[in-house]
């Protein structure tokens, strides 16, 4: 009986470790990828993304409310994360809207 | 080997272990599917929300309605968000059949207090007290600085405003023309003061077409207590590209009643004269109907529903004075089997956002 309890506890502990470790490593990878991708983008790419961000802003945010003024980038990062959850906007829309609202 | 073969564990413990294993497995699977990357900018905690002051006249009875609804947003790392909204709403009426001084209560509520974990592009896990995802009005259009008419739809009371429990939700692109969004949840029964909720489960699924800006969706909810009734609803929204029109509609049906509303809001920015004023002006119209299932007066008041079947037409005017500040007025006429009445409203709503940390230059 004791062996079974230890086995079950070990499985749960291992699962917890995997769950905790994976997002951290993934996030670290994606952060570095994201930064290098941004460095490689030229100003034309960013201008195109900004236009696309404005289009996504109008089609997503305009579904519920009038366009707000732009806030400082760190505030926009929080607001867009809030709207990602509240309005279930897609991750791609979130990125482009954040780019548009902070450029 | 099945978990049930562990006969040394009693049944409640087994259920807890099964649930725990399922949660851990789910988190592991969704984590493996890909974590969300950083926003680039480090988010800062924000105190936001809205404040407003409104006067309503319902069938000749004047009601003064000051409101303050603070929202706290606390981002943690790349994936977490703690968010909460409180509600302080005054409801003051003249005493002594309208001849005395104004008096009343200030209702205090916690609408939501939730922890969100954005696992990946497909799934966000939420735990705590959250707005019940049924239709679109309660979650997205309820704040006073957002809603086009300050009077809520007649069917608003058919929804459970808040739930306590867990939720999975998300939105993602199926292809370049179609976005899918969903929310599924379980709420436990609670009688804790300010955290009341029913034992319910449900889901909502919606499709958004970004090209024509059309959104359609459906919701279902089942109470897991008493008579275990079902409720379902549909929602629709359309913002045509050619004109600044916002068209929205909801239908809901439950044991307490059924009904629909359809609302159109048109910004006068294309009117060729008085441009400065017109682009800040919005006209709104709403038609709605409620079909009662025979709730008595006390139940109807408790749920915030009309006492009898009713239909109502509303016309409103909004003027956007400044970013987040709008003046609003409306008139409606309600036709009901227990009497017709006029519904007037006038007021002002303001949305604020204050960073709770250094934000640097804008």
List the helices and strands and how they pair.
The complex is a heterodimer of chains A (103) and B (362).
Chain A: H1 2-40, H2 43-60, H3 73-86, H4 91-102
Helix pairs in contact in A: 2-4, 3-4
Chain B: H1 11-32, E1 46-58, E2 61-76, E3 80-94, E4 102-118, E5 124-131, H2 137-141, E6 162-175, E7 178-187, E8 200-209, E9 214-223, E10 230-238, E11 245-254, E12 257-267, H3 275-278, E13 281-292, H4 297-303, E14 310-322, E15 325-336, E16 341-355
Ranges of chain B where pLDDT stays below 50 over 5 or more residues in a row are: 1-38
What is the count of DSSP helices of chain B, taking H or I runs of 4+ residues? 4
Q: What is the CATH homologous superfamily assignment of the largest domain in chain B?
A: Porin
CATH fold title of the largest domain in chain B = Porin
- H-E order of chain A: HHHH
CATH class of the largest domain in chain B: Mainly Beta
End-to-end Cα distance of chain A: 62 Å
Task: Give the overall shape of chain B, derived from the CA principal axes.
Answer: globular
**Which sequence of strands runs across the widest sheet of chain B?**
1-2-3-4-5-6-7-8-9-10-11-12-13-14-15-16
CATH architecture annotation of the largest domain in chain B: Beta Barrel
Sheet with most strands of chain A: none
Count of the domains of chain A: 2
Q: Quote the average pLDDT of chain A.
A: 73
Helix content of chain B: 10-25%
Supply the number of structural domains of chain B.
2
Low-confidence stretches of chain A: 11-36
- The termini of chain B sit apart by 59 Å
Helix/strand order of chain B, N-terminal first: HEEEEEHEEEEEEEHEHEEE
Derived structural class of chain A: mainly alpha
């Amino acid at each position: 009986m004791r062996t079974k309890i230890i086995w079950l506890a070990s499985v749960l502990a291992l699962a917890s470790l995997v769950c905790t470790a994976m997002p951290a490593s993934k996030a670290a990878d994606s952060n570095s990828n994201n930064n290098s991708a941004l460095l490689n983008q030229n100003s034309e790419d960013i201008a195109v993304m900004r236009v696309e961000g404005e289009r996504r802003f109008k089609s997503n945010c305009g579904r519920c409310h009038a366009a707000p003024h732009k806030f400082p980038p760190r505030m926009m990062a929080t607001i867009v994360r809030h709207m990602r959850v509240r309005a279930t906007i897609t991750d791609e829309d979130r990125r482009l809207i954040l780019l548009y609202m902070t450029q | 080997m099945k978990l049930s073969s562990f006969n040394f564990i009693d049944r409640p413990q087994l259920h807890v272990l099964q649930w725990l294993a399922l949660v851990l497995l789910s988190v592991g699977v969704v984590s493996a599917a890909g974590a969300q990357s950083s926003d680039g900018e480090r988010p800062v905690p924000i105190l936001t929300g809205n404040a407003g002051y409104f006067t309503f006249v319902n069938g000749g009875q004047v009601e003064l309605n000051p409101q303050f609804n603070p929202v706290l947003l606390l981002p943690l790392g790349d994936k977490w968000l703690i968010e909460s909204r409180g509600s302080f709403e005054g409801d003051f009426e003249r005493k002594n059949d309208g001849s005395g001084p104004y008096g009343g209560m200030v209702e205090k509520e916690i609408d939501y207090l939730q922890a969100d974990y954005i696992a990946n592009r497909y799934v966000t896990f939420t735990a705590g007290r959250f707005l019940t995802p049924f239709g679109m009005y309660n979650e997205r259009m309820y704040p006073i600085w957002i809603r086009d008419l300050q009077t809520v739809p007649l069917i608003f009371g058919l929804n459970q405003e808040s739930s306590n429990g867990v939720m999975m939700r998300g939105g993602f692109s199926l292809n370049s023309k179609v976005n899918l969004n969903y929310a599924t949840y379980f709420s436990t029964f609670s009688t804790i003061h300010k955290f009341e909720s029913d034992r319910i489960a449900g889901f909502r699924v919606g499709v958004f077409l970004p090209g024509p800006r059309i959104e359609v969706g459906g919701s279902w909810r089942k109470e897991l207590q008493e008579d275990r009734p079902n409720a379902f609803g549909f929602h629709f929204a359309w913002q045509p590209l050619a004109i600044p029109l916002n068209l929205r509609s909801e239908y809901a049906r439950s044991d307490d009643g059924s009904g629909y509303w359809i609302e159109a809001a048109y910004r006068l920015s294309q009117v060729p004269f008085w441009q400065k004023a017109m682009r800040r002006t919005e006209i709104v119209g709403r038609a709605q109907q409620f079909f009662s299932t025979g709730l008595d007066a006390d139940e109807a008041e408790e749920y915030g529903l009309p006492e009898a079947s009713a239909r109502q037409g509303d016309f409103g005017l909004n003027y956007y004075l400044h970013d987040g500040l709008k003046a609003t007025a409306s008139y409606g006429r309600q036709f009901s089997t227990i009497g017709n009445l006029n519904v007037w409203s006038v007021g002002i709503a303001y949305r604020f956002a204050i960073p709770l940390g250094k934000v640097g230059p804008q």
